[in-house]
Q: What sequence folds into this?
């Protein structure tokens, strides 16, 4: 495993601290003209999402973490594990539900996701920012009412529950923002 | 483009400030055999091919100080320079490894007189933008600042006192600091605790740095614990560093040697002692005060920007 020295510090590095992977979320270099440089890193724990601040002096070294991102295709789940496949190598990855952190509700078969791997093990699954999903249940649509500010609950094919405009019907295909869970538009074509 | 035009206006205002005062603009080499030996300033060294048969190690200057003092010793009188300077590994919001220094020297000036002129320059040139307040600058000694905000005397405190204060303040302390020197701790406390306070005060001259941080400044003849050195802060951003210049060649040599010992102790490389520079001091540097001002930072503050990269045409990562 390699190391990063302070002069290599920058946003986006993945480092290993106390055996856990961290993302360098922010980097601050402070140096009085004649004084010693102080590097301060804002570090995000990639397993737990917690934030940590740590300081270093010139020449200090930090172990690098083998954290990579890869695009995988969602295949199926057995309620405990979600299974993804690398389209090129056909290698399959089993991801425990906890790691999906609620993102399982945006996934239907063949959805392409970005998975963060630490030492080859999935630690984060990021669905696409937008997915198109079919409405499986909602109250009947109010014909002619195209207002988008009046909302009602709807259930999507993956089981996700979101709020949709009043004119939406069962069977409509909706574009949804997975980061906020918000309805974006109807796209039935 | 807009910030480049504003930068041009500041450059013109700077030159006319000095022209009005009869100060000569000079240019000195950037690729030199000699740079000042300092604890925490690393020069970028380059193999310079003088010709096909000869190559030698040279440095990109970390400031034009040594060359300008050689001119002063040769009788130049008051001089100023807008020079590019280079420092290894200095990359950040307020740092670019290649940057512009405005440096000037005033024979016969006391440090107080120079500070007053620095204040005039910053207010006059800075008025090109709206970011620097035109009010008078505060003045505070290094000791007063530490006493006021940390209730500790920087001139008498020990490493263990300073480190327990650091723990008390819950500072994120770099590993290995326990073996650090008093100056390492003062530096950390300055960055973490004093600079944020200075940022509330607008323009502040921080004066009388500890003698151990004198670098190329004289030690105060009345209180040898402090140096005749100031730093100007604008809203907590260090803008200029000034000295009543040390003219004693043998004392300067000792300081360079001491700085080299510190560099080697930390696992760094020593820097060759600048013999031409020391010979110039030996031949007689006029009693003078001088200051180096980070010109990019002046532009940045004048324009109300928060990052150096917004006032540099091509920051280092795109240069």
A:
């Amino acid at each position: 495993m390699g190391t990063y020295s302070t002069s290599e510090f920058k946003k986006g590095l993945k480092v290993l601290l106390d055996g856990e992977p961290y993302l360098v979320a922010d980097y601050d270099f402070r140096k009085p003209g004649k004084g010693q440089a102080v590097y301060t890193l804002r570090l995000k724990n990639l397993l737990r999402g917690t934030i940590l601040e740590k300081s270093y002096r010139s020449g200090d070294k930090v172990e690098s973490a083998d954290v990579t991102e890869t695009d995988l295709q969602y295949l199926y789940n057995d309620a405990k594990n979600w299974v993804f496949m690398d389209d090129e190598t056909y290698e399959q990855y089993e991801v425990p539900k906890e790691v999906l952190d609620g993102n399982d509700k945006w996934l239907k078969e063949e959805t392409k996701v970005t998975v963060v791997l630490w030492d080859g093990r999935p630690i984060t699954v990021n669905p696409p920012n937008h997915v198109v999903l079919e409405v499986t249940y909602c109250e009947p649509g109010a014909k002619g009412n195209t207002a988008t500010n009046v909302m009602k609950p709807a259930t999507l094919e993956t089981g996700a529950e979101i709020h949709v405009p009043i004119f939406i019907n069962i069977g409509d295909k909706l574009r949804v923002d997975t980061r906020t869970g918000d309805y974006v538009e109807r796209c039935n074509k | 483009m807009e910030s480049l035009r504003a930068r041009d206006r500041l450059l013109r205002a700077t030159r006319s400030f000095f022209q009005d005062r009869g100060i000569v603009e000079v240019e000195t080499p950037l690729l030199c055999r000699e740079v000042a030996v300092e604890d925490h300033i690393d020069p970028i060294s380059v193999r310079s091919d003088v010709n096909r048969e000869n190559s030698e190690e040279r440095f990109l200057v970390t400031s034009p100080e040594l060359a300008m003092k050689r001119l002063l010793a040769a009788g130049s009188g008051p001089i100023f320079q807008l020079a590019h300077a280079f420092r290894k590994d200095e990359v950040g919001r307020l740092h670019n490894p290649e940057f512009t220094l405005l440096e000037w020297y005033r024979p016969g000036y006391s440090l107080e007189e120079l500070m007053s002129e620095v204040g005039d320059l910053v207010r006059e040139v800075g008025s090109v933008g709206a970011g620097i307040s035109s009010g008078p600058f505060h003045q505070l000694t290094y000791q007063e600042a530490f006493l006021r905000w940390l209730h500790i005397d920087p001139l008498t405190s020990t490493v263990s006192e300073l480190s327990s204060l650091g723990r008390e303040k819950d500072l994120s302390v770099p590993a290995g600091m326990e073996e650090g020197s008093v100056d390492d701790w003062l530096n950390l406390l300055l960055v973490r605790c004093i600079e944020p306070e200075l940022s509330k005060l607008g323009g502040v001259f921080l004066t009388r740095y500890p003698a151990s941080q004198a670098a190329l400044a004289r030690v105060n003849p009345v209180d040898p614990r402090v140096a005749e050195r100031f730093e100007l802060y604008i809203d907590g951003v260090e803008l200029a560093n000034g000295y009543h210049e040390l003219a004693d060649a043998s004392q300067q040599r000792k300081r360079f040697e001491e700085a080299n010992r510190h560099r080697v102790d930390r696992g760094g490389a020593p820097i060759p002692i600048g013999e031409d520079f020391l010979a110039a001091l030996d031949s007689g540097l006029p009693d003078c005060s001088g200051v180096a001002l980070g010109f990019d930072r002046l532009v940045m503050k004048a324009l109300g920007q928060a990052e150096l990269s917004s006032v540099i045409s091509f920051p280092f990562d795109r240069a």
Q: What stands out?
A: Chain B touches chain A at residues 38-41, 88-95, 171-177, 183-184, 187-188, 190-192, 195, 213, 215, 231, 238, 241, 266-268 (CB under 8 Å). DSSP finds nine helices and eleven strands in chain B. The mean pLDDT of chain B is 94.
